[in-house]
Design brief:
By secondary structure, the chain is of the alpha+beta class. The chain has two domains: 1-28, no CATH class; 34-131, no CATH class. The chain contains six helices and four strands.
């Protein structure tokens, strides 16, 4: 599930050549209810609830150029970008009742992103410097 409008998600899904079902939480409280999205007011308060704990929002002086680069890579500044935290939940529908069967946040999400567990076990780890990942249609043509 993503927060973008479903029509926008479907365009991206076709671009990437994906065939899985994709849902949108656009214009709903879903992400806020599960503590992965925060309003500007919540963010500016300095502490938000995330991953079942109070999380202190980094002040501008604590932000690194890399964080600003990360935000700008998707057209946002760091505070706006971070108002959406990573999280994943699984649900089951049984006899008309929805059950939350699993949830994970922050680095716990990495395990379901196929390449991260492999890179974490490599001799140099992820060797991250700046924005290092690209989509398949963004690779150099060399």
């Amino acid at each position: 599930m993503s927060r973008a409008p479903l029509a926008k998600l479907q365009v991206y899904k076709r671009r990437m050549g994906w065939s899985f079902p994709w849902a949108s939480s656009f214009e709903s409280d879903f992400n806020y209810d599960f503590g992965v999205s925060h309003t500007k007011e919540q963010w500016e308060s300095g502490v938000v609830d995330y991953n079942f704990r109070a999380w202190t929002v980094p002040q501008a002086s604590e932000q690194t150029p890399w964080l600003n680069e990360l935000g700008s890579s998707v057209g946002a500044d760091w505070p706006t970008y971070r108002q959406e935290g990573p999280g994943m939940s699984a649900f089951a529908l049984e006899d008309g009742v929805v059950y939350q069967t699993y949830s994970t946040y922050e680095r716990g999400v990495d395990a379901i992103w196929g390449m991260y567990p492999w890179l974490d076990r490599a001799p140099l780890g992820r060797s991250e410097t700046g924005i290092w990942w690209r989509r398949h249609d963004e690779y150099d043509s060399e």
